[in-house]
Amino acid sequence: MSDVGSNDNRLPGIDRLRGLVMVLMALDHMRDFFDADALRFRPTDLTHTYRFLFFTRFVTHFCAPTFALLAGVGAYLHGARLGDPRRLSFFLASRGLWLIFLDVFVISPAWAPGSGRVELGTLYAIGCGLLALSALSRLPARIVFAVGAAIVLGHNLLDGIHAEALGAWGPWWRMLHEPGPLPLGASGSVLYPALPWIGVVALGYGIGPLFHQPIRRRDRVLCGAGLASLAAFVLLRSGNFYGDPASWTFQHEPMFTLLSFLNVTKYPPSLLYLLITLGCAALALPALERLPGRAGGALATFGRTPLFFYVLHIYIGLAAAMALALAQGYSFADIAKYLNIGEPPPEFGAGLGGAYVAWALVVAALYPPCRWFADLKRRRKDWQWLSYL
């Protein structure tokens, strides 16, 4: 993750919302590390999942879209402070390349330890968004907003184009819009195709001027946009009209019919996925702006150190999960086998309840170092390299 922009004149609502999505993201990753069901089936697979597992996964859907949107907002606010389009373009390009580098060489080894595989995920997607924004930022914000909206609204029209039909260009199509293997025979896969995420980052940049408006007007616009997004989601989803390649269907019981209705596509993020997640984010931001006390302060601390939190929580979670598996009597070879082919034994890991416990412990353990690092970034503005962490 990248906290685009400096620490000057921060908006508490943005930091708190960013911090909230980081905490929720940690829940999803602890589920991956500690619940063996993560290796057996997708938590949104209605033929295998159960309610608690589905909603544990569903609530974390809000993380990546919200963070990508806020990366765009932060880029606009940083550019407004810089007052120099060329410096902003360089800043965004270097930050985008840095995130992609981290995804390849720091994050991928944690998700596929010892395999040498590269899994292009969240950092790759946001990095591509910032690279695109380094060029788009030369345009007026309203034009960037229009570009972002066009991508978000229209990219599902490309769902019928598949890499297999594009010959030599097919692998590169997967980098943009269809998950699948990496190009050039490289070991690994593209989990987060870039095009829709470029749209979300551009959308965030385009709404940046709103955060220079009076609070009441900004909150009114955000709440209106959030409600309109959720209404559009319900309307489009109700008739399976447009916006998601997977239609909802009636299930054996009403609750699972609701799960089917909510089960929208993340890879790549469909229009309906973005409508429901960003709609809720727009409604949450004004509320978090007014969140008092220690809860607001803790979320803001995490929101000011997102990349620091992101890298640390993955490696701490991985180390703890490995330690638990070894304590249960499994070898490193066993763990590698389960990671590669799935189907671990029922007693492997700690279950979903254990994942929640690990989540609470990891978040609590990360608060002191994140608070220290946030304070260091605030005090040492002369250490420019800190902004890349």
From TrEMBL:
Keywords of this entry: Membrane, Transmembrane, Transmembrane helix
TM region(s), chain numbering: 58-78, 90-112, 118-136, 143-170, 190-208, 220-239, 270-288, 308-328, 348-370
Top-level taxon:
Bacteria
Q: Name one Pfam family in it.
A: HGSNAT_cat
User: Which residues does the UniProt record annotate as the domain Heparan-alpha-glucosaminide N-acetyltransferase catalytic?
Assistant: 10-220
Presence of keyword Metal-binding: no
Tell me the InterPro entries matching this sequence.
HGSNAT_cat
Protein name in UniProt: DUF1624 domain-containing protein
What's the source species for this entry?
Methylocystis heyeri
The parts of the chain that form a coiled coil are none
